[in-house]
Amino acid sequence: MTDSEPPQPEIDSHAEDGVGWIRLRRPPLNIISTRMADDVADAVARFDADPAVRIIVVASALDRAFAAGSDVGEHDLAHVHDHSRAIFRMVRSLAAVDGKPRIAAINGICSGGGNELAFACDMVIACEDTRLALPEIDIGVVSVLAALLMAHHVGQTKLLDLAFSGRWIDAAEAERIGLTVRTLPRAGFDADLREHLRTFTAKSGPALRIGRRLLLSALGRADLDARLDALERGIVEEAIAIPDYAEGVAAFLEKRKPSWR
């Protein structure tokens, strides 16, 4: 791409058969940039307002990954505040109590910020080739935002194990511990996913939206915004302010082992 050419879109979005599709498209691994996060939030708002859409699905346009984290290159002091704002805006748009059901369909690598995107949704469907991790601990920060969102799906002890170890789990373990609701085979994944989505699109759109709002409110999700506000402040003012985080980011970009204090 030359300077005169417009940047390539980082997501594809369109409505089809009652589904508002948001497909991530930032080769090679869908690393989540500030722009991508803002584009996802904008697409969610459009689909929530579109009467032809009954459910919103976030998926990948790439075979290798759903999303392999957020862009560490935007974690420097000049960009990290804008990047954090966009990530939290994306999460709030998906986790908002008033909206249509949101489903993440994940495949390949789903790590770090990819989990923030996936688990802000109401449920997660996985391809059998999916591998998940919260590896931010290896650059000097615990993945607290993804962990908070994953807490709606899995118990605290298992969650702390994933957040503190950064270890990888496969699709079978993710379904076994409750992170995902269904695992589909790699062969025919898209067709099987579309078939499963008809379970939801065959239902009343208003009933789904109202029921989602009432149920999530009853489950205590109405106060999520306040918790996200506190978490965002804590990340910016504490978690990424320590010297070990700066060292971890530098080591990652320089492809070396970090030297912790």
UniProtKB/TrEMBL annotation:
SUPFAM superfamilies, alphabetized: ClpP/crotonase
Swiss-Prot/TrEMBL keywords: Lyase
Single annotated GO MF: enoyl-CoA hydratase activity
E.C. code: 4.2.1.17
Domain of life: Bacteria
Coiled-coil residue windows: none
GO annotation terms (biological process): fatty acid beta-oxidation
Top EC group: lyase
Name listed for the protein in its UniProt record: Short chain enoyl-CoA hydratase
Organism name: Rhizorhabdus wittichii (strain DSM 6014 / CCUG 31198 / JCM 15750 / NBRC 105917 / EY 4224 / RW1) (Sphingomonas wittichii)
